[in-house]
Design a protein that fits this description.
It is a single chain. The chain has a domain of 89 residues: 3-Layer(aba) Sandwich (GIY-YIG endonuclease). It is 39% helix and 12% strand. The protein has six helices and three strands, in the order E-E-H-E-H-H-H-H-H. It has a three-stranded antiparallel β-sheet, with helices on one face. The protein is extended. The N and C termini lie far apart (63 Å).
């Protein structure tokens, strides 16, 4: 038992790529035409099978389906015609050199962190805060002694408005239950 990867031409001229397990693809096409599933083809019926391929391994079929779904219309049409030269030509990068080309080296040796204008803290400061919270060290203590903090996560979790009031009420209720 394997998997079929197929391409349908819808009534509006668009293509739909899908997959179906089993040894026969015709029941799946009939389901599309009957409107069995409320999906892409439901409002674009009738559909016509224009291409299919059988894969013995289901993982290979799913990988091929995902790859074909990302293709341009021209590349899908070349696949329908089995025009492998056109598929190869359409697969080439149009924007110049490849991303990993040696001439495309980074200008800096160190990573650059871009901060969003609304960002409150850099990733490094969040990491330092988390380490301090896990060590139960109070920020700002110069002695370096490890004293247990009453609220080690207060710097990380800032809650405002009604949520803060609710959480304070819940904390009080928990404390009262423990006593």
């Amino acid at each position: 038992m394997g998997i079929f990867v197929y391409m349908l031409r819808c009534s509006d001229g668009s293509f739909c790529v899908g997959s179906a397990t089993g040894d026969d693809l015709s029941p799946r096409i009939d389901q599309h035409n009957a409107g069995y599933y409320l999906g892409y083809t439901f409002t674009r019926r009738p559909v016509v099978l224009v291409w299919s391929e059988h894969f013995d391994r289901i993982t290979d079929g799913i990988a091929a389906e995902r790859q074909i779904k990302g293709w341009s219309r021209a590349k899908k049409e070349a696949l329908i015609r089995s025009d492998w030269a056109a598929i190869s030509r359409l697969a080439q990068r149009r924007g110049g050199l490849a991303k990993n080309h040696p001439s495309q080296k980074a200008k800096h040796d160190r990573p650059i962190y871009h901060r969003h204008p609304r960002a409150t803290a850099s990733p490094l400061s969040l990491e330092v805060r988390a380490q301090r919270a896990s060590k139960d060290v109070r920020p700002g203590s110069s002695s370096g002694a490890r004293r247990p903090s009453r609220r080690p996560l207060r710097g990380l979790l800032r809650v405002t408005g009604s949520i803060a009031k609710k959480s304070q009420e819940q904390e009080r209720a928990i404390r009262e239950r423990q006593r």
